[in-house]
Amino acid sequence: MAQADVAILMGSQSDWPTMKHAADTLAQLGIGYEARIVSAHRTPDRMYEFAKGAKAQGFKLIIAGAGGAAHLPGMTAALTSLPVFGVPVESRALSGEDSLLSIVQMPAGIPVGTLAIGKAGATNAALLAAAVLALTDPEISTALDAYRAERTAAVAETPSDTD
Q: pTM of whole model > 0.85?
Protein backbone atom coordinates (compact mmCIF):
# COMPACT_ATOMS: atom_id res chain seq x y z
CA MET A 1 0.00 0.00 0.00
CA ALA A 2 1.12 3.57 -0.71
CA GLN A 3 2.33 6.01 1.94
CA ALA A 4 -0.48 7.05 4.27
CA ASP A 5 -1.88 10.23 2.75
CA VAL A 6 -5.18 9.92 4.62
CA ALA A 7 -5.85 9.51 8.32
CA ILE A 8 -9.10 7.79 9.23
CA LEU A 9 -10.09 8.70 12.77
CA MET A 10 -12.91 7.32 14.84
CA GLY A 11 -14.03 7.91 18.38
CA SER A 12 -14.27 4.24 19.36
CA GLN A 13 -13.91 0.69 18.11
CA SER A 14 -17.66 0.58 17.59
CA ASP A 15 -17.28 3.13 14.78
CA TRP A 16 -15.02 0.81 12.74
CA PRO A 17 -17.83 -1.09 10.95
CA THR A 18 -18.85 2.25 9.41
CA MET A 19 -15.38 3.72 8.90
CA LYS A 20 -14.10 0.47 7.36
CA HIS A 21 -16.03 1.47 4.24
CA ALA A 22 -13.76 4.51 3.89
CA ALA A 23 -10.70 2.33 4.43
CA ASP A 24 -11.85 -0.25 1.89
CA THR A 25 -12.57 2.41 -0.72
CA LEU A 26 -9.19 4.07 -0.23
CA ALA A 27 -7.46 0.69 -0.48
CA GLN A 28 -9.35 -0.13 -3.67
CA LEU A 29 -8.05 3.14 -5.15
CA GLY A 30 -4.48 2.44 -4.00
CA ILE A 31 -4.47 5.33 -1.52
CA GLY A 32 -2.49 4.79 1.67
CA TYR A 33 -4.26 5.42 4.96
CA GLU A 34 -3.88 4.89 8.67
CA ALA A 35 -6.91 4.17 10.84
CA ARG A 36 -6.78 5.29 14.46
CA ILE A 37 -9.08 5.44 17.45
CA VAL A 38 -8.93 8.97 18.75
CA SER A 39 -11.76 10.03 21.05
CA ALA A 40 -12.38 13.74 21.58
CA HIS A 41 -13.90 12.89 24.97
CA ARG A 42 -11.98 9.87 26.29
CA THR A 43 -8.54 10.52 24.78
CA PRO A 44 -8.38 14.30 24.27
CA ASP A 45 -4.59 14.42 24.65
CA ARG A 46 -4.21 11.78 21.92
CA MET A 47 -6.58 13.75 19.68
CA TYR A 48 -4.71 17.00 20.30
CA GLU A 49 -1.29 15.43 19.68
CA PHE A 50 -2.44 13.71 16.50
CA ALA A 51 -4.22 16.72 15.00
CA LYS A 52 -1.37 19.13 15.78
CA GLY A 53 1.19 16.77 14.21
CA ALA A 54 -0.80 15.26 11.32
CA LYS A 55 0.63 17.54 8.63
CA ALA A 56 4.21 17.00 9.82
CA GLN A 57 3.57 13.23 9.70
CA GLY A 58 2.79 13.56 5.99
CA PHE A 59 -0.98 13.26 6.04
CA LYS A 60 -2.75 15.30 3.37
CA LEU A 61 -6.27 15.06 4.76
CA ILE A 62 -8.32 13.53 7.52
CA ILE A 63 -11.57 11.58 7.51
CA ALA A 64 -13.09 11.63 10.99
CA GLY A 65 -16.12 9.59 11.93
CA ALA A 66 -18.05 10.08 15.13
CA GLY A 67 -21.42 9.28 16.62
CA GLY A 68 -23.60 10.94 19.23
CA ALA A 69 -22.18 14.33 20.21
CA ALA A 70 -19.69 13.81 17.35
CA HIS A 71 -17.04 16.28 18.43
CA LEU A 72 -14.08 14.50 16.82
CA PRO A 73 -14.31 16.00 13.31
CA GLY A 74 -14.78 19.55 14.54
CA MET A 75 -12.16 19.40 17.27
CA THR A 76 -9.69 17.89 14.80
CA ALA A 77 -10.45 20.64 12.27
CA ALA A 78 -9.89 23.25 14.97
CA LEU A 79 -6.37 21.91 15.54
CA THR A 80 -5.10 21.44 11.96
CA SER A 81 -5.18 23.27 8.65
CA LEU A 82 -5.56 19.96 6.79
CA PRO A 83 -8.94 19.31 5.18
CA VAL A 84 -11.23 17.32 7.47
CA PHE A 85 -14.18 15.32 6.18
CA GLY A 86 -16.70 14.33 8.83
CA VAL A 87 -18.70 11.12 8.73
CA PRO A 88 -21.71 10.92 11.06
CA VAL A 89 -21.85 7.44 12.53
CA GLU A 90 -25.32 6.07 13.15
CA SER A 91 -26.26 6.29 16.81
CA ARG A 92 -28.81 4.27 18.73
CA ALA A 93 -30.64 7.25 20.17
CA LEU A 94 -31.33 9.29 17.04
CA SER A 95 -30.14 7.10 14.14
CA GLY A 96 -27.18 9.37 13.42
CA GLU A 97 -29.18 12.57 13.01
CA ASP A 98 -27.60 13.89 16.21
CA SER A 99 -24.16 13.11 14.79
CA LEU A 100 -24.98 14.77 11.47
CA LEU A 101 -26.21 17.96 13.09
CA SER A 102 -23.22 18.10 15.42
CA ILE A 103 -20.72 17.78 12.57
CA VAL A 104 -22.46 20.01 10.05
CA GLN A 105 -23.01 22.94 12.45
CA MET A 106 -19.39 24.11 12.68
CA PRO A 107 -18.83 27.81 13.27
CA ALA A 108 -17.45 29.98 10.48
CA GLY A 109 -13.69 29.58 10.28
CA ILE A 110 -13.54 25.90 11.28
CA PRO A 111 -14.70 23.99 8.19
CA VAL A 112 -15.59 20.32 8.20
CA GLY A 113 -16.83 18.77 4.97
CA THR A 114 -19.79 16.79 6.23
CA LEU A 115 -20.96 13.63 4.48
CA ALA A 116 -24.03 11.41 4.78
CA ILE A 117 -24.77 9.25 7.80
CA GLY A 118 -23.17 5.80 7.88
CA LYS A 119 -21.79 3.63 5.08
CA ALA A 120 -22.63 6.02 2.23
CA GLY A 121 -20.92 8.87 4.07
CA ALA A 122 -17.79 6.84 4.80
CA THR A 123 -17.54 5.64 1.20
CA ASN A 124 -18.14 9.13 -0.18
CA ALA A 125 -15.61 10.65 2.23
CA ALA A 126 -13.00 8.33 0.73
CA LEU A 127 -14.06 9.24 -2.81
CA LEU A 128 -13.95 12.94 -1.96
CA ALA A 129 -10.50 12.46 -0.46
CA ALA A 130 -9.45 10.67 -3.65
CA ALA A 131 -10.78 13.55 -5.76
CA VAL A 132 -8.72 16.06 -3.75
CA LEU A 133 -5.58 13.93 -3.95
CA ALA A 134 -6.17 13.31 -7.68
CA LEU A 135 -5.66 17.02 -8.35
CA THR A 136 -1.91 16.52 -7.92
CA ASP A 137 -1.50 12.75 -8.34
CA PRO A 138 -2.05 11.29 -11.82
CA GLU A 139 -2.13 7.68 -10.53
CA ILE A 140 -4.95 8.47 -8.13
CA SER A 141 -6.73 10.40 -10.88
CA THR A 142 -6.56 7.36 -13.18
CA ALA A 143 -7.74 5.02 -10.41
CA LEU A 144 -10.64 7.32 -9.53
CA ASP A 145 -11.69 7.61 -13.18
CA ALA A 146 -11.60 3.81 -13.49
CA TYR A 147 -13.63 3.39 -10.29
CA ARG A 148 -16.30 5.75 -11.56
CA ALA A 149 -16.35 4.13 -15.00
CA GLU A 150 -16.88 0.71 -13.37
CA ARG A 151 -19.83 2.08 -11.42
CA THR A 152 -21.31 3.54 -14.59
CA ALA A 153 -20.83 0.32 -16.55
CA ALA A 154 -22.58 -1.65 -13.80
CA VAL A 155 -25.87 0.19 -14.36
CA ALA A 156 -28.16 -1.67 -16.75
CA GLU A 157 -29.83 0.28 -19.55
CA THR A 158 -33.11 -1.58 -19.23
CA PRO A 159 -34.83 -3.26 -16.29
CA SER A 160 -34.78 -7.03 -15.97
CA ASP A 161 -37.72 -9.24 -15.04
CA THR A 162 -35.84 -10.74 -12.09
CA ASP A 163 -35.92 -9.18 -8.65
A: yes
